[in-house]
Design a protein that fits this description.
The protein has helices at about 30-45, 50-60, 65-70, 80-95, 110-120, 120-125, 130-140, 150-165, 165-180, 185-195, 205-230, 235-255, 260-290. The chain has 13 helices and no strands. The longest helix is centred in the C-terminal third of the chain and has 33 residues, at about 260-290. Helix 4 (about 80-95) runs parallel beside helix 11. The protein has about 300 residues and is mainly α.
């Protein structure tokens, strides 16, 4: 829309942005393909920021964060945009490579056994009637058959709906897992803030940038390993695991300007908090996805 009045304030625009209010001089009433192409071009081609961001993000743990917070922002992809791109790539790879049927890892014979037991009222009349193998399969999939009588009927109906509609359950998992996993970022920011509470030179903003960079690295490398992992020797998976541990520790040391011992302690505590949060997110994903299935 260069050469026309700004649609926001009416000032004549002669460039890409309005000189008065700063609004982008562009029309979004265009085919979706054009809009997606423009977004990809802005990120990958026009300014080359991705080419300058990825090498530092991937191979220099923790260095991108102090560079960005020190004011060198124009040369790098903004952290939140980088995180969104990385998470998009990760979940596209995850849902493309993991068959939907694996979300409920129960063989057909056990599935039919559980379904028939629910229909015959075996669970309502006596939990002990469930075969031990079926009970173990349910427990591994976070399904509790020992609930109080008041809620057992609703649980039975919902379990039956999940078992009879595995594709719908898979769709709900794919819907809820990316949403709930976003909680990892603010919780990581909170953890980093607590772990650096006595560092007056580090603010919540610094920890937010660091958390976004950490999770972007995890998503990018996770997508790479999911895609290439099946074709690589197992030693590469172990090497990635070791590199993951080293990367997080080194990132804490560089971004937090800490020594080996202090960054190691923070690394240990951060892993504990991550383990707890990931467990809660996985349980919440299974429960919400299960209760979202319509029988």
């Amino acid at each position: 829309l260069s050469g026309r009045p700004c649609q926001n304030c009416g000032t004549m625009v002669h460039g890409r942005f309005c000189p008065n209010c700063g609004q982008l001089a562009a029309s979004f009433h265009r085919p979706i393909v054009d809009l997606i192409g423009e977004t990809i071009s802005d990120t990958f081609t026009f300014d080359g920021r991705l080419a300058r961001t990825l090498p530092i993000l991937l191979f220099r743990p923790g260095r991108l964060t102090p560079n960005y917070t020190a004011g060198k922002r124009a040369r790098y992809v903004p952290p939140f945009r980088l995180f969104l791109l990385a998470s998009l790539v990760f979940y596209l790879a995850l849902f493309a490579l993991v068959p939907p049927g694996q979300y409920i890892n129960i063989d057909d014979e056990t599935r039919e056994e559980i379904t028939q037991g629910i229909r015959d009222g075996a669970i309502a009349e006596g939990i002990d009637d469930i075969p031990e193998t079926a009970r173990e399969q349910l427990a591994r999939n976070n399904i509790n058959v020992d609930a109080p009588d008041a809620v057992r009927s609703d649980i039975e109906n919902q379990v039956l709906a999940v078992l009879e509609n595995p594709d719908q359950f898979s769709a709900q998992v794919e819907n809820w897992l990316p949403r709930l996993s976003i909680l990892m970022v603010p919780l990581t920011v909170f953890s980093l803030s607590i772990l650096h509470i006595w560092r007056r030179k580090l603010f919540v903003y610094d920890h937010a940038i660091h958390a976004l960079h950490l999770h972007s690295w995890i998503y990018v490398t996770g997508a790479i390993m999911m895609t290439a992992g099946p074709y690589l020797p197992s030693i590469f998976l172990w090497a990635y695991f070791i590199w993951f541990l080293f990367y997080v520790w080194r990132s804490l040391a560089v971004a937090g300007s800490a020594g080996i011992i202090m960054s190691g302690l923070r690394f240990f505590l951060l892993l504990i908090s991550w383990t707890f949060v990931i467990s809660m997110i996985m349980v919440a994903t299974v429960l919400i996805s299960g209760y979202s299935v319509q029988g």
